[in-house]
Design brief:
Layout: H1 2-17, H2 27-34, H3 36-56, H4 59-80, H5 84-94, H6 99-109
The structure holds phosphoribosyl ATP.
């Protein structure tokens, strides 16, 4: 599991290293230069393609679309200054808490 997350941490570092570099030589740099709206839009498109793959394509296509989606999500995090570790910590905090119980506890608070 830690190894799986490590690839996302590594990819995030590569993404950060592309900030301010030549958009003609790096797709990531091109995305940064086009701004957060465009990055968010690309993430949305890749999310939809992942949904389509899950509903009507095979596992290979689903894996490929999921990889596209995760890459674009990491670029979005980088543009927002969100370190992946913050998300991993939130997921870790939730481990062992049932989503059903968590929703009930939210309902009681409001
Ligand atoms: N994981 C990815 C990755 N996944 C998808 N993509 C690119 O995402 C693009 C998606 O294509 P689209 O046609 O949807 O997007 P588009 O060409 O911007 O088209 P528009 O919608 O903007 O018109 C393709 O160019 C893919 O190559 C990625 N580009 C880079 N990475 C990683 O980022 C690293 C650094 O890449 P560079 O920044 O290009 O050096 C790479 O080594 C990879 O590890």
């Amino acid at each position: 599991m830690a190894q799986d997350v490590e690839i996302l941490n590594e990819l995030y570092k590569v993404i950060l290293s592309r900030r301010g570099t030549d958009p003609d030589k790096s797709y990531t740099a091109k995305l940064f230069s086009r701004g957060r709206g465009k990055i968010a839009q690309k993430f949305g498109e890749e999310s939809v393609e992942t949904i389509v793959a899950a509903l009507s394509e095979g596992r290979d296509e689903l894996a490929a679309e999921s990889a596209d989606m995760l890459y674009h999500l990491l670029v979005l995090w980088a543009d927002c200054g969100l370190e992946p570790g913050k998300v991993w910590a939130e997921l870790e905090r939730r481990l062992g808490t049932s989503g059903i119980d968590e929703k009930k506890s939210r309902a009681k608070k409001s």
